[in-house]
Design a protein that fits this description.
By secondary structure, this protein is an alpha+beta fold. It has 5 helices and 8 strands. It is 25% helix and 25% strand. The protein starts with a strand and ends in a 7-residue tail after the last helix.
């Protein structure tokens, strides 16, 4: 079975979201990487999933016995019916919270590469921007070249930032290579 998921970055207006299809039995670590690629994150911070009963993460980077190992459990153990939700938190400092909702269950279509992004809106905030408040400050500065902090923020970010940018074709190119991406990750960091 294929799960169609809505991934929404919480507490931001206008909304930053993606609609993706994944295998229902995807392990939670691979789901993490799918979210990273679909949203535009850079996989450089800790993360966890939270359900009503469980917290799931990559345990080798956490010293908390209350978590379940992410590569040992699958998505369909936590969501089974449309409307079911889980929470995904990325970057314990900036604390980017995402709500993941199972929108639809569909039959496997062999002609469609899975995972795939079907839709979305807006650019993901930059890494290490300072959470929601820092992101709003960043947007304010980046939208006003007259501010004294503008050039500093452009240098920090590495160029102009377009908050409305959403390139589904680039996301899907990355998702088509997700297995190679995971294989290429440095074993000393998150994978």
């Amino acid at each position: 079975m294929i799960f169609e998921l809505l991934i929404e970055l919480d507490s931001l207006e206008p909304r930053v979201w993606r609609r993706v299809r994944v295998n229902s039995d995807i392990d939670m670590r691979t789901l993490h990487h799918t979210i990273q690629l679909a949203m535009g994150w850079e996989n450089c911070h800790l993360y966890y999933f939270a359900t009503a009963d469980e917290k799931i993460s990559q345990l080798e980077f956490l010293e908390d016995e209350d978590f379940v190992e992410d590569h040992e459990v699958n998505l369909d153990e936590f969501v089974q019916s449309t409307g079911d939700r889980i929470n995904y938190v990325y970057d314990f400092g900036d604390k980017w919270s995402h709500t993941i909702t199972l929108e639809k269950i569909v039959e496997n279509d062999e002609s469609e590469h899975i995972p795939i992004c079907l839709a979305g809106e807006r650019n993901c905030p930059p890494e290490d921007v300072g959470g929601i408040n820092g992101y709003h400050e960043f947007l304010n500065i980046m939208s006003n070249p007259r501010l004294p902090e503008y050039e500093e923020k452009v240098d920090w970010y590495g160029g102009e930032y377009d908050p409305a940018l959403f390139r589904m074709s680039v996301i899907n190119e990355d998702l088509e290579e997700i297995d190679d991406y995971i294989d290429s990750l440095d074993e000393d960091w998150l994978y």
